[in-house]
Amino acid sequence: MLEVKGLSATYGKHRALDGASLHVAPGEIAVILGTNGAGKSTLLKSIAGICEGRVSGSVTMSGEALLGLPPHKVVERGVALVPEGRGIFGDLSVRDNLMLGANPERAREDQAQVYDRLISLFPKLEERANQIARTMSGGEQQMVAIGRAMMSNPVILMLDEPSLGLSPLLSKELFQNLKAVREAGLGILLVEQNARLSLGIADRGYLLENGEILREDRAEVLRNDPAVQAAYLGGGGSKSAPRPAELTGTATKPAAPKPASVTVRPKPAKSISAAAISGVDMNALLARASARPEPKTVPRAAPASVKRTTAMPAAQSDRLRAALTQIETAARQCRAPNRSALPPLRPSIRDRQRPATTPHTEGAPTPPATPSTKPADTGKVQVWRRRPGSTQFDKEI
Ligand SMILES: Nc1ncnc2c1ncn2[C@@H]1O[C@H](COP(=O)(O)OP(=O)(O)OP(=O)(O)O)[C@@H](O)[C@H]1O
């Protein structure tokens, strides 16, 4: 088991890591979540023996102290790091990259066995053994980087942002591969920005902010914690470091949100009815509109219920009455069984284009005959106008 206790790291006066403690056992995945600059890479580099800063505290692997050892000795103790940016040798073949990882003594003893385990997990590495590493896709290069670290036959594999630069699909594939690595019995300490995917495969998680481990919990618990969701799973929309109290759950409960204030507009002192504005009793008008029309021919006077506040000029009212009468008469004629009084219909455009036959409908009165000098098929439109106030029609010349 890898155990880290009170690990601190400073760069000059800057304390990047402040007494961090964690542990990872073989066959489990532990993820470290933290915002940018929280100290995640510093933590992994401190364990791996490659931190540029001053490191203090305790790191042990199966009880053996690691702190202060050179990086290759840390690898010999069974802890391998896949650094951010992969760090593969782009001009070398896939096979050469993998073999460079097999250099530690602990790997040489069981090299064939270690290689077989790797190939069973990532068969593509053997299929592409001769391909120059830099010509591979981002996801494949990440596989080479993981493969090279695994060739050192580690007990604990540390990965720094392995999904960086990978498409969502490749990231998903990568995380599935990491699950397979865990199933092969390795322990994984994972630093990831992709909290959703990493908490999806991890067993436990640590929240690291400002160099301090704020919380450790089961991945499932972290995944369902609203504060964690807001800080790391895109639920809060804020990229700034979350408040420690929120993540540790020690923050005082926020007061229940106030209901949005509702402005009640005072009623106007005096409401003005539509009837007052228009001078018409709207209810009476509506009642009239929905009632069956009376078969009257004479122009009707405005009903008593319709009050006008302003008198309509006499001429205007007469014209209106005349128009109403005409409409009513025409409507009555339309309903009447004998429509002989109706004028001939105007031919439709289609009819006008056809050679004319009888230019009106059946049963309609035959209009005065057109002069014989004019042929019937000239297509000329005959216009008939109704005499005002009568059912008689005159042909318009
Ligand atoms: N070599 C260095 N010299 C000086 N300061 C450093 C060095 N490396 C890291 N730091 C500082 O230490 C702090 C933690 O950096 P670190 O890279 O560990 O953060 P991180 O959590 O991995 O961030 P990110 O997610 O952005 O990679 C940062 O403020 C960073 O500027």
The total number of structural domains is: 2
In the CATH scheme, the class of the largest domain would be: Alpha Beta
Strand fraction equals: 15-25%
Low-confidence stretches: 252-278, 305-310, 339-345, 356-367, 369-375
Please explain how this structure is put together.
By secondary structure, the chain is α/β, with parallel strands linked by helices. The protein folds into two domains: 247 residues, Rossmann fold (3-Layer(aba) Sandwich); 57 residues, no CATH class. The chain has a six-stranded mixed β-sheet with strand order 6-7-8-3-9-10, sandwiched between helices. Strands 2-1-4-5 form a four-stranded antiparallel β-sheet, covered by helices on one side. Adenosine-5'-triphosphate binds next to β2 and α1. The site of adenosine-5'-triphosphate (ATP) has 12 residues, from β2 and α1.
Q: What distinguishing features does this structure have?
A:
single chain, 397 residues, alpha/beta, Rossmann fold, 2 domains, six-stranded mixed beta sheet, four-stranded antiparallel beta sheet, 16 helices, binds adenosine-5'-triphosphate
Précis, in short:
With 397 residues, the protein is an alpha/beta fold.
